[in-house]
Amino acid sequence: MADILSLHDAVARYVDNGATVAMEGFTHLIPFAAGHEIIRQGKRDLTLIRMTPDLIYDQLIGAGCAKKLIFSWGGNPGVGSLHRLRDAVEKGYPHKLEILEHSHATMACAYEAGAAGLPLAVLRGYVGSDLPKVNDQIKFIECPFTGERLAAVPSIRPDVGVIHAQRADRQGNVLVEGIIGVQKEAVLAAKSSIVTVEEIVDDLGATPNACVIPGWAISAIAVAEKGAYPSYAYGYYPRDNRFYKEWDAIARDRDAFQAWLEENVLQAGGEV
Amino acid sequence: MADILSLHDAVARYVDNGATVAMEGFTHLIPFAAGHEIIRQGKRDLTLIRMTPDLIYDQLIGAGCAKKLIFSWGGNPGVGSLHRLRDAVEKGYPHKLEILEHSHATMACAYEAGAAGLPLAVLRGYVGSDLPKVNDQIKFIECPFTGERLAAVPSIRPDVGVIHAQRADRQGNVLVEGIIGVQKEAVLAAKSSIVTVEEIVDDLGATPNACVIPGWAISAIAVAEKGAYPSYAYGYYPRDNRFYKEWDAIARDRDAFQAWLEENVLQAGGEV
Amino acid sequence: MSSHYTSSEMMTVTAARALENGMTCFVGIGLPSEAANLARLTHAPDVVLIYESGTLQTKPDVLPLSIGDGELCETALTTVSVPEMFRYWLQGGKVDVGFLGTAQIDRYCNLNTTLIGDYTAPKVRLPGGGGAPEIATNAGEVFITLKHSKRTFVRDVDFVTTLGFGRDGKGRDGVPNIGKGPTRVITDLCVMKPDPETRELVVVSLHPGVSHADVIEATGWEIRFAEAIEATPEPSANELQVLRELKARTDRHHAGE
Amino acid sequence: MSSHYTSSEMMTVTAARALENGMTCFVGIGLPSEAANLARLTHAPDVVLIYESGTLQTKPDVLPLSIGDGELCETALTTVSVPEMFRYWLQGGKVDVGFLGTAQIDRYCNLNTTLIGDYTAPKVRLPGGGGAPEIATNAGEVFITLKHSKRTFVRDVDFVTTLGFGRDGKGRDGVPNIGKGPTRVITDLCVMKPDPETRELVVVSLHPGVSHADVIEATGWEIRFAEAIEATPEPSANELQVLRELKARTDRHHAGE
């Protein structure tokens, strides 16, 4: 059964230095508040997993939390590069960042396989791509029925899965609505999980087949109002596309980034 | 784009003698009206696929439509045996029925793999079971990452998938609600598909993550009011548990079955 | 045997008591479902019941006749697809206990729900495996409940539909990523547990009024008894009342009233 | 070049016209998204647009900045999980055409969105593959649209993120269960198609006011021209109006107005 904790306590309890952490939310419901709390607590040597690193991992990488990144598309959507990510990959700043690179289809299947308790995912993937040459986790197997050659990758089973959702009820059951991405999979595949929510309510108001994650499948719930900002929460607030554009200039410059981080994360008591 | 047809025309167009047909609906939304239409049209030599044959396949088998059955649990839920199925397996009446037997987990994964366009499904299944000794489609593969031995089966890719759903809109988009079983998978995995619905409406009234199958992924839609009876349609009518109990006596006796079939299917103009 | 409850009620109450509050339980239809819901309505209000129809954390007011009755969906926290149920929830390791019935069981807890006789020429064709083969291996542990008779308790099952501990008791040894298998079998006569070494079933508790001879008579092999055999506690008045009300509600409901 | 439309508008309108009404199109963000929505708002009202965020049959009123803008979900028929999107809808063979952009393309239509330079010491690190590697192989066919320049049109890409026809044009030969690959490339200068034999890109249509020399100058290899080269039809007044209104709405929206 999920414990309802403060965000500080949830991160302190479940995110250890050196942990493998998947913070998901496909453009929508990105758990920024949780990311900022990880930065504030000075976590180090994390292996960060995320299909689209987005600003949240640009910030964690720039703040020096990450040792390794597993991802499939590392840009600022519709804007351009993630400059902190590029600075780490191209220049080793603030330190060297190991990367392991997949396609979206593969990561989605690897999360699915992780949630399904399997050691591997199988898909029709990477046909003719050079990615298998630079990612030694990609293997190929032969279908025992048809002989077809299919890609196989290890499933994703992080130490901690972190997502943001619209709301939880008082028993810790969580409703995720709208673009649900791989959020359920990130929670179910992980050994521990933290779900931040906009609010805790008496009744989720969910329809029969809504995306609801039961409280007993979650480690900790923390209220984080506007916890997905500057991404968005369907039914609560829109994406701040302007901030995504402004991020380009902030992240392009090491000092500008550090000043932004100081003011908006390190010196901020809680969520921005 | 789905054609909106009469049930007669949909079955006539898509269900050929000798076809492999998956009629799904996990206890809920079983497409009885479509099954009766297949019987009325005298289809023969069908390979019938269904996790739980239930009364619908007991009727199709008793009526002589089936050559082979692929299934994972062949009882009358909460009541006992499917006597027409047993008569075919044990006594070869009305003729010999070949069976291929799986577990639920395997069939669910094989439908999933079929919908996913894969030739095989992989699962942690059949550990210590005798089923692989009597089903030569079950093989075992070794995970290339962990060495774990996992079960593999061919995906299910029927010629025709048939399901019943609550409603369609005028563009042929379909809402399935409640116990959704493997219905979406049965449609997506099949080469052609027929969806019967209680009604056609202007607006499905679906929430963002409801189980909606787009019209362009369906071959034909047919209105069949009470088309899942004696199973049920969430939001429309309940399961007729009394009929399920009465079926035991009807199906136990060859003549009683034939009389029931004559009166309720063959001489009936449309859906019972 | 005391006259104020039946041996069936004794079985159901004892099976119910095996479930602890807060457990997640993947429930088979029939006797397991009756026991699991009795547990939920008595000592284990927060037991999480999962049915293979995709209904998660369901709280039916009447017992379902089928594994997919509308009642299960209407009272569930949420309902997922059947592939998701078997992949994410069962195989994904979210189930503490699988609660199963069976047609035949042997001394190593192997279950047969496939057939009596030979596969290609069955004497009696049974429904088949359903969810059981993977429930038994992917749940953390397994409880089994069924009526005791020589027909159901056989030395070796005709067909291993679902693994207990294999033909020799070693069927789970060295197999990675599976649960510990059956930990108790509850009948209308007694409670049995597998011997920690050999995995052969041993009677650990006799229900009130049941003798060693009664169990021996109803078992198809030379059943062993624990050295310090216990007396199964009787049903409480409350358990009996809740169970009888549940069954009465259920009968009225399924008769279409 | 005619002065009443820009070369970018010419590219978008030409790309839009490639989509036929009723096609299901898996849409990449940026130029493909602009073209696909223009098609939907003009000649192809029933084109089905699918974005990798799980949004099926979406009809955004403004162009999304990201692949997962709220607008895409709010105007979709339904929204599925990302694993389902890639497994059931893309790999399951429900997509007629994948519409992609790219950072680099070579003469065999291979796409590079990974990096410039060497993988272990990149000169420029690009975002990576995203959905493209499997869109390009699991969709029935692929349309590609990007601006024409020597920087983007190179003889051999630095890295094959996404298969066109491989380093030798034979990369799809004999591979079962994949689509036919790129069938046209639309730029601000021309339309190209792969040669049916060699798979090397051939210019089949020049936009109004564009010369052979313009294309040669902007291409990083000795580009071939079809024998009977066509003139790309100009945008219609309606197409231009719809496109400009769409872009104006989009700009206002993303500026937070």
UniProtKB/TrEMBL annotation, chains A, B:
Mitochondrion recorded as keyword: no
GO molecular function ontology, one term from the record: CoA-transferase activity
Record keywords, A-Z: Transferase
Record-linked SUPFAM superfamilies: NagB/RpiA/CoA transferase-like (SSF100950)
Gene3D superfamilies membership: 3.30.30.40, Glutaconate Coenzyme A-transferase (3.40.1080.10)
Keyword Transferase in record: yes
Cross-referenced SMART domains: CoA_trans
UniProt-recorded name of the protein: Glutaconate CoA-transferase subunit A
Record lineage: Bacteria, Pseudomonadati, Pseudomonadota, Gammaproteobacteria, Oceanospirillales
Automatic annotation (TrEMBL), chains C, D:
Organism of provenance: Modicisalibacter muralis
Signal peptide feature range: none
Record Gene3D superfamilies: Glutaconate Coenzyme A-transferase
Entries under Pfam families matching the protein: CoA_trans
Listed InterPro entries: CoA_trans_fam_I, NagB/RpiA_transferase-like
Keywords for this protein: Transferase
Highest taxon above the source species: Bacteria
This protein's name: Glutaconate CoA-transferase subunit B
SUPFAM superfamilies associated with the record: NagB/RpiA/CoA transferase-like (SSF100950)
